[in-house]
Amino acid sequence: MSVSTTHGIGDSTPRLDKSVRARLSGWLQRNVLTLAVGGVLLVLTVFFSLTAEAFFTMPNILNILRQIAPTLIAAVAMTFVITTSGIDLSVGSMVALSGSLLAIWAHAGMDSGLALALVLTLGLVVGFVNGWFTSYFELPPFIVTLATLGIVRGTALLVTQGYSTPLPRDSWLTYLGQGRLGGVPVPAIIAVIAAFAGWFVFTQTPFGRYVVGLGSNYESVRRAGVNTRLVNLVVYLVSGFAAALSGVIVTARLASGSSNAGVGFELEVITAVVLGGTSLRGGRGTMLGTVLGALVLGVIANGLVLLHVSPFYVQIAQGCILLLAIFMNTRLFARFGTAMK
To answer: Which end of the chain has fewer CB atoms surrounding its CB within 10 Å, N or C?
Structure first.
Protein backbone atom coordinates (compact mmCIF):
# COMPACT_ATOMS: atom_id res chain seq x y z
CA MET A 1 0.00 0.00 0.00
CA SER A 2 2.72 2.36 1.01
CA VAL A 3 4.77 1.46 -2.10
CA SER A 4 1.85 2.23 -4.39
CA THR A 5 1.30 5.64 -2.73
CA THR A 6 4.97 6.51 -3.06
CA HIS A 7 4.86 5.69 -6.78
CA GLY A 8 1.78 7.87 -7.17
CA ILE A 9 3.47 10.89 -5.65
CA GLY A 10 6.66 10.25 -7.62
CA ASP A 11 4.73 10.18 -10.92
CA SER A 12 2.59 13.25 -10.25
CA THR A 13 5.32 15.54 -8.94
CA PRO A 14 7.27 15.87 -12.23
CA ARG A 15 3.99 16.41 -14.12
CA LEU A 16 3.00 19.09 -11.61
CA ASP A 17 6.39 20.77 -11.90
CA LYS A 18 6.18 20.68 -15.66
CA SER A 19 2.71 22.20 -15.60
CA VAL A 20 3.78 24.97 -13.21
CA ARG A 21 6.86 25.73 -15.30
CA ALA A 22 4.74 25.88 -18.48
CA ARG A 23 2.24 28.25 -16.86
CA LEU A 24 5.03 30.40 -15.42
CA SER A 25 6.76 30.50 -18.80
CA GLY A 26 3.54 31.53 -20.52
CA TRP A 27 2.88 34.25 -17.93
CA LEU A 28 6.41 35.61 -18.34
CA GLN A 29 6.03 35.66 -22.13
CA ARG A 30 2.70 37.47 -21.92
CA ASN A 31 4.02 40.07 -19.49
CA VAL A 32 7.63 40.47 -20.61
CA LEU A 33 7.23 44.13 -21.60
CA THR A 34 5.30 45.02 -18.45
CA LEU A 35 8.03 43.43 -16.35
CA ALA A 36 10.67 45.26 -18.37
CA VAL A 37 9.08 48.68 -17.84
CA GLY A 38 8.63 47.85 -14.15
CA GLY A 39 12.37 47.15 -13.97
CA VAL A 40 13.13 50.42 -15.75
CA LEU A 41 10.94 52.29 -13.26
CA LEU A 42 12.77 50.65 -10.35
CA VAL A 43 16.20 51.54 -11.78
CA LEU A 44 15.15 55.14 -12.43
CA THR A 45 13.74 55.47 -8.92
CA VAL A 46 16.97 54.20 -7.36
CA PHE A 47 19.10 56.40 -9.61
CA PHE A 48 17.22 59.64 -8.92
CA SER A 49 16.94 58.80 -5.21
CA LEU A 50 20.74 58.60 -5.02
CA THR A 51 21.46 61.66 -7.18
CA ALA A 52 18.63 64.07 -6.25
CA GLU A 53 18.14 64.66 -2.54
CA ALA A 54 14.51 65.75 -2.71
CA PHE A 55 13.36 63.03 -5.12
CA PHE A 56 12.36 60.19 -2.79
CA THR A 57 10.23 62.25 -0.43
CA MET A 58 6.48 62.04 0.09
CA PRO A 59 5.74 65.61 -1.14
CA ASN A 60 7.68 64.94 -4.35
CA ILE A 61 6.06 61.54 -4.91
CA LEU A 62 2.62 63.15 -4.56
CA ASN A 63 3.77 65.89 -6.91
CA ILE A 64 4.74 63.27 -9.53
CA LEU A 65 1.31 61.63 -9.20
CA ARG A 66 -0.36 65.02 -9.67
CA GLN A 67 1.75 65.81 -12.72
CA ILE A 68 1.12 62.52 -14.53
CA ALA A 69 -2.63 62.46 -13.78
CA PRO A 70 -3.77 64.03 -17.12
CA THR A 71 -1.43 61.75 -19.09
CA LEU A 72 -2.58 58.65 -17.23
CA ILE A 73 -6.28 59.42 -17.71
CA ALA A 74 -5.85 59.84 -21.48
CA ALA A 75 -3.47 56.85 -21.63
CA VAL A 76 -6.04 54.53 -20.05
CA ALA A 77 -8.47 55.37 -22.85
CA MET A 78 -5.69 55.20 -25.46
CA THR A 79 -4.96 51.64 -24.32
CA PHE A 80 -8.42 50.64 -25.57
CA VAL A 81 -7.84 52.49 -28.86
CA ILE A 82 -4.41 50.98 -29.59
CA THR A 83 -5.58 47.50 -28.58
CA THR A 84 -8.11 47.70 -31.42
CA SER A 85 -5.08 48.52 -33.65
CA GLY A 86 -6.26 52.14 -33.87
CA ILE A 87 -4.71 55.46 -32.83
CA ASP A 88 -6.05 58.82 -31.63
CA LEU A 89 -3.79 61.78 -32.43
CA SER A 90 -6.39 64.41 -31.47
CA VAL A 91 -6.08 64.10 -27.68
CA GLY A 92 -3.56 66.95 -27.31
CA SER A 93 -5.74 69.35 -29.28
CA MET A 94 -8.75 68.25 -27.24
CA VAL A 95 -6.88 69.18 -24.06
CA ALA A 96 -6.36 72.70 -25.45
CA LEU A 97 -9.94 73.19 -26.66
CA SER A 98 -11.70 71.79 -23.59
CA GLY A 99 -9.48 73.78 -21.21
CA SER A 100 -9.86 76.99 -23.20
CA LEU A 101 -13.64 76.75 -23.42
CA LEU A 102 -13.94 75.85 -19.76
CA ALA A 103 -11.98 78.96 -18.77
CA ILE A 104 -13.84 81.22 -21.23
CA TRP A 105 -17.29 80.05 -20.16
CA ALA A 106 -16.48 80.17 -16.44
CA HIS A 107 -14.90 83.62 -16.86
CA ALA A 108 -18.02 84.83 -18.68
CA GLY A 109 -20.17 83.90 -15.68
CA MET A 110 -21.58 80.57 -16.78
CA ASP A 111 -22.31 78.11 -13.99
CA SER A 112 -19.13 76.06 -13.39
CA GLY A 113 -21.00 72.76 -13.33
CA LEU A 114 -22.69 73.53 -16.66
CA ALA A 115 -19.36 74.59 -18.22
CA LEU A 116 -17.75 71.35 -17.04
CA ALA A 117 -20.61 69.27 -18.44
CA LEU A 118 -20.43 71.07 -21.80
CA VAL A 119 -16.68 70.55 -22.32
CA LEU A 120 -16.95 66.86 -21.38
CA THR A 121 -19.82 66.54 -23.85
CA LEU A 122 -17.64 68.24 -26.46
CA GLY A 123 -15.04 65.54 -25.86
CA LEU A 124 -17.69 62.92 -26.57
CA VAL A 125 -18.64 64.75 -29.79
CA VAL A 126 -15.04 64.79 -31.07
CA GLY A 127 -14.69 61.13 -30.09
CA PHE A 128 -17.91 60.36 -31.94
CA VAL A 129 -16.58 62.00 -35.10
CA ASN A 130 -13.36 59.99 -34.89
CA GLY A 131 -15.22 56.77 -34.20
CA TRP A 132 -17.90 57.36 -36.82
CA PHE A 133 -15.45 57.82 -39.68
CA THR A 134 -13.16 54.97 -38.63
CA SER A 135 -15.95 52.51 -37.81
CA TYR A 136 -18.68 53.14 -40.36
CA PHE A 137 -16.60 54.47 -43.28
CA GLU A 138 -13.49 52.39 -42.48
CA LEU A 139 -11.15 55.35 -42.93
CA PRO A 140 -7.66 54.94 -41.42
CA PRO A 141 -7.67 56.14 -37.79
CA PHE A 142 -4.32 57.87 -38.32
CA ILE A 143 -5.76 60.09 -41.09
CA VAL A 144 -9.09 60.77 -39.36
CA THR A 145 -7.57 61.75 -36.02
CA LEU A 146 -4.81 63.75 -37.73
CA ALA A 147 -7.55 65.77 -39.41
CA THR A 148 -9.46 66.32 -36.16
CA LEU A 149 -6.15 67.26 -34.50
CA GLY A 150 -5.92 70.21 -36.88
CA ILE A 151 -9.60 71.11 -36.68
CA VAL A 152 -9.75 71.05 -32.88
CA ARG A 153 -6.46 72.92 -32.40
CA GLY A 154 -7.54 75.53 -34.95
CA THR A 155 -10.87 75.94 -33.15
CA ALA A 156 -9.03 76.47 -29.86
CA LEU A 157 -6.89 79.19 -31.46
CA LEU A 158 -9.99 80.77 -33.00
CA VAL A 159 -12.01 81.01 -29.80
CA THR A 160 -9.08 82.27 -27.72
CA GLN A 161 -7.38 84.42 -30.39
CA GLY A 162 -4.15 83.03 -28.95
CA TYR A 163 -4.67 84.52 -25.47
CA SER A 164 -4.90 82.69 -22.17
CA THR A 165 -8.06 83.01 -20.10
CA PRO A 166 -7.88 82.80 -16.28
CA LEU A 167 -10.36 80.82 -14.24
CA PRO A 168 -12.32 82.88 -11.66
CA ARG A 169 -10.46 82.87 -8.33
CA ASP A 170 -13.51 81.70 -6.40
CA SER A 171 -14.42 78.87 -8.81
CA TRP A 172 -14.52 75.36 -7.32
CA LEU A 173 -13.12 74.11 -10.64
CA THR A 174 -9.59 74.94 -9.43
CA TYR A 175 -10.09 72.31 -6.72
CA LEU A 176 -10.01 69.64 -9.48
CA GLY A 177 -6.40 70.57 -10.24
CA GLN A 178 -5.05 72.06 -7.02
CA GLY A 179 -7.12 70.49 -4.25
CA ARG A 180 -6.20 67.68 -1.89
CA LEU A 181 -8.33 64.98 -0.29
CA GLY A 182 -6.76 63.39 2.78
CA GLY A 183 -3.44 64.90 1.75
CA VAL A 184 -3.56 63.28 -1.71
CA PRO A 185 -3.86 65.56 -4.76
CA VAL A 186 -7.34 65.38 -6.30
CA PRO A 187 -5.95 64.86 -9.86
CA ALA A 188 -4.09 61.76 -8.61
CA ILE A 189 -7.30 60.39 -7.07
CA ILE A 190 -9.21 60.95 -10.32
CA ALA A 191 -6.41 59.24 -12.29
CA VAL A 192 -6.39 56.21 -9.96
CA ILE A 193 -10.17 55.87 -10.29
CA ALA A 194 -9.86 56.11 -14.10
CA ALA A 195 -7.09 53.49 -14.15
CA PHE A 196 -9.06 51.08 -11.95
CA ALA A 197 -12.23 51.57 -14.02
CA GLY A 198 -10.23 51.01 -17.21
CA TRP A 199 -8.65 47.86 -15.78
CA PHE A 200 -12.05 46.51 -14.69
CA VAL A 201 -13.74 47.12 -18.05
CA PHE A 202 -10.74 45.85 -19.99
CA THR A 203 -10.26 42.59 -18.06
CA GLN A 204 -13.58 41.77 -16.41
CA THR A 205 -16.27 42.60 -18.96
CA PRO A 206 -17.32 41.28 -22.40
CA PHE A 207 -16.64 44.74 -23.83
CA GLY A 208 -12.96 44.39 -22.93
CA ARG A 209 -12.82 41.02 -24.66
CA TYR A 210 -14.46 42.49 -27.75
CA VAL A 211 -11.83 45.26 -27.82
CA VAL A 212 -9.03 42.70 -27.73
CA GLY A 213 -10.84 40.66 -30.39
CA LEU A 214 -11.11 43.65 -32.70
CA GLY A 215 -7.35 43.98 -32.68
CA SER A 216 -6.49 40.29 -32.95
CA ASN A 217 -9.18 38.87 -35.23
CA TYR A 218 -11.76 41.43 -36.35
CA GLU A 219 -13.60 39.17 -38.78
CA SER A 220 -14.06 36.35 -36.28
CA VAL A 221 -15.53 38.75 -33.72
CA ARG A 222 -17.89 40.18 -36.33
CA ARG A 223 -19.05 36.72 -37.42
CA ALA A 224 -19.67 35.84 -33.78
CA GLY A 225 -22.46 38.43 -33.83
CA VAL A 226 -20.69 41.29 -32.08
CA ASN A 227 -21.51 44.78 -33.33
CA THR A 228 -17.87 45.56 -34.05
CA ARG A 229 -18.58 49.01 -35.45
CA LEU A 230 -20.38 50.06 -32.28
CA VAL A 231 -17.57 48.69 -30.08
CA ASN A 232 -15.00 50.63 -32.10
CA LEU A 233 -17.15 53.78 -31.92
CA VAL A 234 -17.44 53.51 -28.13
CA VAL A 235 -13.65 53.18 -27.83
CA TYR A 236 -13.16 56.56 -29.54
CA LEU A 237 -15.97 58.10 -27.46
CA VAL A 238 -14.08 57.08 -24.33
CA SER A 239 -10.86 58.52 -25.74
CA GLY A 240 -12.49 61.88 -26.51
CA PHE A 241 -14.09 62.06 -23.07
CA ALA A 242 -10.80 61.20 -21.33
CA ALA A 243 -8.92 63.84 -23.33
CA ALA A 244 -11.50 66.49 -22.39
CA LEU A 245 -11.23 65.48 -18.72
CA SER A 246 -7.45 65.76 -18.95
CA GLY A 247 -7.87 69.26 -20.36
CA VAL A 248 -10.12 70.20 -17.44
CA ILE A 249 -7.51 69.01 -14.93
CA VAL A 250 -4.66 70.84 -16.71
CA THR A 251 -6.68 74.06 -16.79
CA ALA A 252 -7.75 73.69 -13.17
CA ARG A 253 -4.14 73.08 -12.09
CA LEU A 254 -2.85 76.14 -13.94
CA ALA A 255 -6.01 78.19 -13.15
CA SER A 256 -5.92 79.26 -16.79
CA GLY A 257 -7.03 77.94 -20.17
CA SER A 258 -4.77 78.25 -23.20
CA SER A 259 -4.90 77.14 -26.83
CA ASN A 260 -1.21 76.22 -26.51
CA ALA A 261 -1.90 73.62 -23.84
CA GLY A 262 -1.43 69.96 -24.74
CA VAL A 263 1.22 70.47 -27.42
CA GLY A 264 2.97 67.10 -27.72
CA PHE A 265 0.46 65.59 -25.28
CA GLU A 266 -0.48 62.85 -27.78
CA LEU A 267 3.20 61.85 -28.01
CA GLU A 268 3.38 61.51 -24.23
CA VAL A 269 0.18 59.47 -24.03
CA ILE A 270 1.11 57.08 -26.85
CA THR A 271 4.59 56.66 -25.35
CA ALA A 272 3.11 55.66 -21.99
CA VAL A 273 0.82 53.08 -23.60
CA VAL A 274 3.40 51.54 -25.94
CA LEU A 275 6.12 51.59 -23.31
CA GLY A 276 3.80 49.68 -20.99
CA GLY A 277 3.50 46.79 -23.41
CA THR A 278 0.30 47.37 -25.39
CA SER A 279 0.85 46.02 -28.88
CA LEU A 280 0.89 48.55 -31.71
CA ARG A 281 -0.44 45.76 -33.92
CA GLY A 282 -3.51 45.44 -31.74
CA GLY A 283 -4.92 42.42 -29.95
CA ARG A 284 -3.19 42.94 -26.65
CA GLY A 285 -3.20 45.68 -24.05
CA THR A 286 -2.30 46.02 -20.41
CA MET A 287 -3.58 48.64 -17.99
CA LEU A 288 -0.86 47.89 -15.45
CA GLY A 289 1.75 48.46 -18.14
CA THR A 290 0.11 51.77 -19.07
CA VAL A 291 0.24 52.93 -15.45
CA LEU A 292 3.91 51.92 -15.20
CA GLY A 293 4.65 53.64 -18.52
CA ALA A 294 3.08 56.91 -17.32
CA LEU A 295 5.05 56.65 -14.06
CA VAL A 296 8.31 56.19 -15.97
CA LEU A 297 7.67 59.37 -17.97
CA GLY A 298 6.73 61.28 -14.83
CA VAL A 299 9.79 60.07 -12.91
CA ILE A 300 12.13 61.03 -15.77
CA ALA A 301 10.63 64.51 -16.15
CA ASN A 302 10.67 65.14 -12.41
CA GLY A 303 14.13 63.66 -11.84
CA LEU A 304 15.72 65.68 -14.63
CA VAL A 305 14.24 68.90 -13.26
CA LEU A 306 15.58 68.10 -9.77
CA LEU A 307 19.01 67.50 -11.30
CA HIS A 308 18.76 70.96 -12.91
CA VAL A 309 18.80 69.51 -16.42
CA SER A 310 17.26 71.79 -19.04
CA PRO A 311 13.53 70.99 -19.51
CA PHE A 312 14.16 70.91 -23.25
CA TYR A 313 15.88 67.57 -22.72
CA VAL A 314 12.65 66.08 -21.33
CA GLN A 315 10.97 66.04 -24.74
CA ILE A 316 14.12 64.62 -26.33
CA ALA A 317 14.15 61.89 -23.68
CA GLN A 318 10.46 61.13 -24.32
CA GLY A 319 11.10 60.82 -28.07
CA CYS A 320 14.02 58.46 -27.46
CA ILE A 321 11.90 56.39 -25.06
CA LEU A 322 9.10 56.16 -27.62
CA LEU A 323 11.57 54.98 -30.26
CA LEU A 324 12.99 52.38 -27.88
CA ALA A 325 9.51 51.28 -26.83
CA ILE A 326 8.42 50.80 -30.44
CA PHE A 327 11.59 48.84 -31.16
CA MET A 328 11.00 46.57 -28.15
CA ASN A 329 7.30 46.36 -28.93
CA THR A 330 7.76 45.17 -32.49
CA ARG A 331 10.77 42.94 -31.79
CA LEU A 332 9.43 41.24 -28.71
CA PHE A 333 5.95 40.85 -30.11
CA ALA A 334 7.41 39.37 -33.27
CA ARG A 335 9.28 36.87 -31.09
CA PHE A 336 6.55 36.05 -28.60
CA GLY A 337 3.59 37.07 -30.73
CA THR A 338 1.79 33.77 -30.70
CA ALA A 339 2.07 33.30 -26.99
CA MET A 340 1.15 36.86 -26.15
CA LYS A 341 -2.14 37.02 -28.01
So the answer is: N
